[in-house]
Design a protein that fits this description.
Elements (H helix, E strand, L loop, with lengths): L2 E6 L6 H15 L5 E5 L6 E9 L7 E6 L4 E5 L5 H17 L4 E3 L10 H21 L3 E3 L6 E3 L2 H4 L4 H17 L5 E2 L3 E3 L8 E6 L5 E3 L4 E6 L2 E6 H8 L5 E3 L5 E3 L4 H10 L3 E3 L5 E7 L7 H9 L8 E4 L11 E7 L5 E8 L4 E3 L9 E11 L11 H7 L12 E2 L2 H25 L5 H8 L11 H5 L4 H7 L8 E12 L2 E14 L2 E10 L4 E11 L2 E12 L6 E6 L4 E6 L2 H4 L8 E15 L3 E3 L2 H11 L15 E3 L5 E4 L7 E7 L2 E7 L2 E9 L8 E7 L11 E12 L4
Parallel strand pairs: 9-12, 11-13, 18-20, 31-40, 32-39
Antiparallel strand pairs: 1-5, 1-6, 2-3, 3-4, 4-5, 7-8, 10-11, 12-16, 13-14, 14-17, 15-16, 18-24, 19-23, 20-21, 21-23, 22-23, 25-26, 26-27, 27-28, 29-30, 29-32, 30-31, 32-40, 33-34, 35-36, 36-40, 37-38, 38-39
Helix pairs in contact: 1-2, 2-3, 3-5
Length: about 725
């Protein structure tokens, strides 16, 4: 059970100051820990609920609940780590220092003094709790901040000293919580594996990514579409000498991706039950003539496609044969263009629910995660039912139930048809990228794999029309100046994450373009990889938060932050410095921006009477009236207005901005006149200036002090060492 503290007497909780004081007290105890907060769904009596924890040292964290009546409840879980205890007391002390009139009482309604001795007593109590569990001798599942901990007392009872086994158990608890949280959590499936067992739990892995293997009876090892189902204990014994394997506790493990040859060797060596054609393929149907799900709803869903946790529930006919991990294709039929509009993976077990048609039938539904979503009416290239019928004539693609299972041979053929479709799509997208339509093209295709849009058509458009660049300037790339070389891992044509040598060439001065060329030794030629604007910037100290690497492995959008604001930028030097762009790194980044469009901003904003009255009232300013008794409008001066609003998750390195110009100079590229204007994207704690490059035709008479606004693309590179 958790130990509960109640804080009474707070009228308005000053969260910012409490957090600031908590960190100050806490860091004074243990260096500079990284404190995280996870928010929970409130109950009916709560205004807010969250858990505070410390990265790499918390087991169960500290639970905080802001109650509707005004009290705050702080719960210290029964197996909280030593650092959790210290964090709890730092939080309670911070509340008392910020809100001096509050009372902190314990479960017996006694005042708490929050002394070091009390904190030590709470920690000793948790050590006793752990010792009691070990002495009980029963396997126990303990909830942690990130993962459950499966404690097997037999692993600790034989150790020499009681103190050591308690410390070891807490250390293992912490390890389970924080080791490789980026690993994919493999979903549990329930299957008939042997005649003796009705349903067994299994987690299926295919050696394509780092995985976390939770509690299960079997681990399914995939090789192609063949699955070898190995008992969990036997799987651990098979993997125990592999560097990629780590047994976290008595029932859970981590496995990093390994070489295919190594995986295949272990697959062949494993003792288990073999099932060929393990993953099935289902054809879901959406007849827009009779379905209650309309095309307008489909279009709305496309807007949410890139959101985490996006899924569909759909009716399934062959529900008894469906399992988590099976594939599906959604076929649109009815009036209009017919063909594949969705593709993905089944992520849930079938469940009965109301008949979507209202006929009162018994209907089962399945939950699906999408990897592709394609608008049938807008896409220039649809995999149609006619093409499917021609390729696989022994299946009715134009009518039938939703959720019909394909035979194994039909599924194999469909995979080949889809692969050809993808190749055609890529070929078409390669042509359209230089026409500046790549954004819409890919949005219609529903590419879920990239974290953000991948392509430079729009970026080139900040200089000239991509078609003009393709025709008049790209053919001259061989005459550009040598700029850099790099030995990289790259995916391009014959190269699939293979090592290769890049040659980088550049044209222009402060404002320029670079092109990346691959020495394709496999095909004995030099390949053009990509080209993008490359401008001189102003350095700023940024802390790297996340890197969204593109499929080429030599391009990326980097998410970072200054002291006061988050910012994302395209890393123009990623091909050479990807080892430096790591989360947590603090780097001097030269930021520069290109404008898609730009206009002169209004020097003042006139608010209407109603808004003016409300604003004056909120600010405690007396209302002013004209001679007719009407409220005088307020006039806001915009001379020093600075705004920077990032676009969205799909285009994180683009933003809407407003700023006065600090300085102006004229530059040129490809014989076109541009303006290089220094603007601010943040006022506090000091001005964050970046050079903004835009076509002179947008604002021919731009000068210092001119307020401008528009849309920009942000780029950056690591400042060169002197």
């Amino acid at each position: 059970m958790a130990y509960k503290f109640t804080i009474k007497g707070i009228r308005r909780f000053n969260e910012e100051k409490v957090v600031e004081r908590t960190l100050a007290l806490y860091r004074g105890v243990e260096g500079d820990p990284e404190v995280k907060i996870r928010y929970h769904q409130e109950t009916g009596e709560e205004k807010e609920s969250y858990t505070i924890m410390t990265e790499k040292v918390s087991t169960q964290g500290v639970n905080v609940k802001h109650m509707i009546g005004g009290n705050i409840i702080v719960e210290l879980p029964w197996l909280a780590s030593k650092m959790d205890v210290l964090l709890c007391y730092a939080f309670l002390k911070a509340i008392k220092k910020v809100h001096r009139a509050v009372h902190v009482i314990d479960e017996e309604d006694k005042s708490v003094k929050l002394t070091e001795d009390e904190a030590k007593e709470q920690w000793h109590l948790r050590r006793s709790n752990m010792d009691e569990i070990i002495n009980r001798g029963e396997k126990t599942v303990i909830a942690g901040v990130m993962r459950d901990f499966h404690l097997n007392p037999a692993l600790y009872i034989g150790r020499d000293e009681i103190a050591n086994r308690i410390e070891d158990a807490f250390a293992d608890f912490i390890t389970v919580q924080w080791t490789n949280l980026e690993a994919v959590n493999i979903r549990e499936e329930r299957r008939h594996i042997t005649e003796e067992e009705e349903l067994s739990t299994i987690r299926v892995i295919d050696n394509t990514e780092d995985v976390f293997i939770g509690v299960c009876q079997y681990v399914g090892m995939m090789k192609g579409n063949t699955c070898k189902m190995v008992k969990f204990e036997d799987f651990c014994h098979l993997m125990e000498k592999q560097d990629e394997f780590q047994l976290l506790d008595d029932a859970q493990a981590l496995l990093d991706k390994m070489d295919d040859e190594q995986w295949n060797e272990l697959f062949n060596k494993a003792a288990g039950i073999v099932r060929e054609n393990f993953r099935k393929t289902f054809i879901m149907r959406w007849n827009t003539d009779i379905s209650n799900y309309k095309l307008s709803e489909f279009e709305d869903a496309m807007e949410d496609f890139f959101d985490d946790g996006f899924y569909y529930d759909w009716s399934i006919w062959d529900y008894q044969k469906a399992h988590i991990g099976d594939k599906f294709y959604m076929i649109r039929t009815g009036e209009g263009k017919n063909g594949v509009v969705m593709r993905g993976t089944i992520i849930g077990t079938p469940y009965p629910d109301e008949d979507w048609s209202g006929k009162g039938r018994k209907v089962y539904y399945i939950r699906m995660s999408l990897t592709n979503m394609i608008h049938p009416e807008r896409t220039p290239l649809l995999l149609t039912t006619d093409e499917l019928t021609e390729a696989i004539p022994d299946f009715n693609w134009k009518e039938g139930h939703s959720g019909e299972i394909l035979s194994d041979s039909q599924a194999d053929k469909l995979e080949g048809v889809w692969k050809d479709y993808i190749e055609r799509t890529h070929a078409m997208s390669s042509e359209e990228v230089v026409e500046g339509d790549f954004n819409d093209f890919y949005k219609e295709k529903g590419w879920k794999k990239p974290e953000c849009y991948q392509g430079h058509g729009g970026h080139i458009q900040t200089i000239m029309e991509p078609e003009e660049f393709l025709e008049n300037h790209l053919p001259e790339v061989g005459t550009w100046t040598f700029f850099d070389t790099a030995h990289v891992k790259i995916s391009h044509d014959e190269y699939d994450d293979d090592e290769g040598d890049l040659l980088v060439v550049k044209t222009g001065g402060d404002m320029g373009m670079v092109a990346l060329m691959l020495n394709n030794e496999k095909a004995k030629r030099v390949d053009f990889v990509c080209t993008y604007p490359f401008h001189k910037g102003i350095p700023h100290k940024l802390k790297i938060k996340k890197v969204a690497e593109w499929d080429s492995h030599v391009e990326a959008v980097v998410y970072a932050e200054t002291e006061e604001m988050p910012i994302a930028f395209f890393a123009t030097d990623y091909y050479a410095n990807k080892n430096k762009y790591v989360p947590g790194a603090e780097l001097d980044i030269e930021l520069a921006a290109s404008a898609y469009n730009i206009v002169e901003g209004e020097s003042e904003t006139v608010l209407d009477a109603e808004t003016s009255a409300k604003m004056r009232s909120d600010m405690g300013i007396e209302l002013e009236y004209d001679k007719d008794g009407n409220v005088q409008p307020m006039i806001l001066c915009n001379d020093e207005l600075v705004a920077y609003l990032s676009h969205d998750e799909e285009f994180p390195d683009e933003a809407e901005f407003a700023s006065p110009i600090k300085s102006v100079e004229q530059v040129s590229l490809f014989g076109i006149d541009f303006i290089k204007a220094e603007i601010s994207i943040c006022h506090e704690p000091e001005e964050t200036y970046v050079p903004l490059y835009f076509k002179k035709e947008y604002l021919p008479y731009a000068k210092k002090g001119t307020l401008i606004r528009g849309f920009l693309w942000m780029q950056g590179k690591i400042k060169a060492e002197n």
